[in-house]
């Protein structure tokens, strides 16, 4: 019974976040529009050589996705802290880390998943061949997952800070370096029709690591921020 | 008899520092089921800090908080399930409707019964606004929705920080009456308020912080 109660509470946190995101759908579009614009601007700024674009494509796609996913991060817990719902989350008597995992999952659904879905469009603008798109999407799926999880921990840590947004980027971006390296490598290998399995498995391990540690770190940071 | 005299909630030599200021200076107080403890005192004397410490948001620098004789850190989850907390912020989502807010917040703690939500809203006289987003309500109406959440929490201990803020005279009176009902049913209410409470002196006790 306690397990069902906990999973039901996590489900409620998740659905509440999705409903709230839907009510503020203008904010939902911001990261994905930003990502597509980055993809559209690069071919204009560079020499129009398909080979050059294709060489740069993995880096552009991954850096674009990372920067886009940073956009919504700062406000992740801010509203909850201001309106007092974060306090109430602590008083449910349920494990806070799991409730926050529900929230981070919802955050990924509204900010990470659209980036994965938009990546074939961005890739096509940069000359990524069709056969590489599926691997690239899989790698981005894992990569944006890590971004949401680590970003959530970062957002919680900087919640009480006055100049939280600068601190957040400085804190989160270095942590994302392995994801960028293996992610861009996976896309690059796929573009050159080589097997990207090793890079993808490394992304899987990073994702599992983030999935196990980030919710606990986020919960501890949230508790501290409410002191 | 021994059982009946055990305090529901007790603090022992509680010291709390907030930055440079020593807010709670060795506070020892016992609160019993069936009473309303009215925490009073000048602005900045630590009323909110006391309530936040009891709710578990702040960690005292020394001293202990006991729930039915057990230190709360020993079984935090069971303790928090006994609590309904109403802070300065209402804990409501502005973009969700009254009913959505209440069913999410209550559902995370206990089973939600739609009829219970309707009845809680009737008790705070807000049933007509059930489907309105919180954003469109006045400050006093939001406070009453937050109070409805406390009613629905199914918790014996209520910690209410300025529950009567922004309320008109009749709503104040009505909410005080609901506090009285909870207390006479064996609940414990610890609240802060600037005005006097219109509760019978048999169930009301005042704690003045200096």
Task: Please outline what is shown here.
Chain A is mainly α and about 230 residues long. In chain A, about 85% of the residues lie in helices and about 0% in strands.
Reading side by side through the largest sheet of chain B, how are the strands ordered? 6-7-8-3-9
The percent of residues in helical segments of chain A reads over 70%
Secondary structure category of chain A: mainly alpha
Q: Give the CA-CA distance, first to last residue of chain B.
A: 33 Å
Describe the structure.
- The complex is a heterodimer of chains A (227) and B (210).
- By secondary structure, chain A is an all-alpha fold.
- Chain A has one domain (5-225).
- Chain A is built from 10 helices and no strands.
- In chain A, α1 (2-23) packs across α6 and α7 (130-157) packs antiparallel against α9.
- Chain B is 31% helix and 26% strand.
- In chain B, the strands form 2 sheets. A 5-stranded parallel beta sheet of chain B has the order 6-7-8-3-9, sandwiched between helices. Chain B has a 4-stranded antiparallel beta sheet with strand order 2-1-4-5, with helices on one face.
- The model of chain B has no long low-confidence stretch (mean pLDDT 92).
- The interface between A and B is medium-sized, with 26 and 29 residues.
């Amino acid at each position: 019974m306690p397990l069902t109660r906990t999973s039901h509470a996590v489900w409620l946190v998740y659905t509440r976040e999705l409903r709230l995101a839907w009510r503020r759908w203008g904010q939902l579009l911001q990261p994905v529009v930003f990502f597509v614009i980055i993809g559209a601007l690069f071919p204009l700024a560079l020499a129009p050589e398909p080979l050059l674009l294709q060489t740069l494509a993995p880096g552009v796609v991954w850096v674009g996705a990372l920067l886009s996913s940073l956009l919504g991060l700062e406000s992740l817990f801010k509203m909850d802290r201001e309106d007092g719902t974060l306090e109430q989350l602590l008083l449910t008597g349920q494990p806070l880390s799991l409730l926050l995992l529900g929230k981070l999952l919802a955050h990924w659904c509204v900010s990470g998943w659209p980036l994965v879905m938009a990546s074939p469009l961005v890739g096509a603008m940069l000359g990524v061949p069709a056969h590489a798109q599926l691997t690239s999407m899989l790698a981005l799926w894992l990569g944006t997952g890590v971004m949401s999880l680590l970003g959530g921990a970062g957002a919680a840590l900087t919640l009480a800070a006055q100049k939280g947004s600068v601190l957040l980027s400085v804190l989160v971006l270095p942590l994302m370096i392995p994801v960028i390296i293996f992610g861009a490598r996976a896309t690059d290998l796929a573009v050159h029709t080589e097997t990207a399995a090793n890079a993808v498995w490394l992304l899987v391990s990073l994702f599992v690591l983030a999935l196990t540690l980030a919710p606990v770190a986020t919960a501890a940071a949230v508790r501290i921020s409410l002191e | 008899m021994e059982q009946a005299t055990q305090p529901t909630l007790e603090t022992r030599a509680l010291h709390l520092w907030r930055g440079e200021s020593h807010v709670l200076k060795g506070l020892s107080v016992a609160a019993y089921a069936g009473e309303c403890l009215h925490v009073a005192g000048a602005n900045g004397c630590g009323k909110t800090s006391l309530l936040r410490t009891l709710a578990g948001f702040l960690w005292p620098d020394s001293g202990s908080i006991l729930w039915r004789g057990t230190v709360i850190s020993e079984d935090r989850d069971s303790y928090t399930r006994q609590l309904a907390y109403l802070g300065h912020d209402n804990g409501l989502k502005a973009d969700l409707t009254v009913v959505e807010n209440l069913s999410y917040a209550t559902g995370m703690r206990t089973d939600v019964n739609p009829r219970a939500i309707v009845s809680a809203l009737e008790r705070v006289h807000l049933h007509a606004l059930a489907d309105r987003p919180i954003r469109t309500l006045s400050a006093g109406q939001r406070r009453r929705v937050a109070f409805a959440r406390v009613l629905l929490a199914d918790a014996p201990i209520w910690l209410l920080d300025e529950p009567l803020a922004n309320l008109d005279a009749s709503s104040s009176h009505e909410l005080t009456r609901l506090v009285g009902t909870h207390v006479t049913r064996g609940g414990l209410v610890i609240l802060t308020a600037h005005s006097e409470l219109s509760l019978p002196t048999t169930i009301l006790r005042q704690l003045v912080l200096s």
